[in-house]
């Protein structure tokens, strides 16, 4: 099991075992600030991470993802970012 597909399978298996969201993820998933546009935006890597976290079926993880989505949607982000968050989560 030394190929890219095997790495992805191992990653998904590890994520499914989560009973709670690891602390190291929480800081990375905050909306970022764009100094040129002077607004916040949701990084695509954060959306991908949250979607992967949804693979974990633990109630604490699903509750955290739901809370994260609610929190992000209350932030002053663009309409496109709102659409992406609603569409993908």
Q: Can you offer a commentary on this structure?
A:
The chain is mainly α. The chain has one domain. It is built from five helices and two strands. It has helices at 4-16, 23-26, 44-53, 59-74, 79-88, and strands at 32-34, 39-41. It has a two-stranded antiparallel ribbon with strand order 1-2. A hairpin with a 4-residue loop joins strand 1 and strand 2 (39-41).
* Poorly predicted parts: none
The number of domains: 1
Distance between the termini: 31 Å
Radius of gyration: 14 Å
* Strand order in the largest sheet: 1-2
Number of helices: 5
Secondary-structure-derived class: mainly alpha
**Counted beta strands:** 2
Mean pLDDT over the full residue set: 92
Residues in helices, as a percent range = 55-70%
Note the overall shape.
globular
Share in β-strands: 5-15%
Which series of helices and strands comes N to C? HHEEHHH
What about the largest sheet?
Answer: 2 strands, antiparallel
Please sum up the structure shown.
By secondary structure, the chain is mainly alpha-helical. It has helices spanning 4-16, 23-26, 44-53, 59-74, 79-88; strands spanning 32-34, 39-41.
Which helices and strands, and how do they pair?
Blueprint: H1 4-16, H2 23-26, E1 32-34, E2 39-41, H3 44-53, H4 59-74, H5 79-88
Antiparallel strand pairs: 1-2
Characteristic key phrases:
89 residues; 7% strand; mainly alpha; 5 helices; two-stranded antiparallel sheet
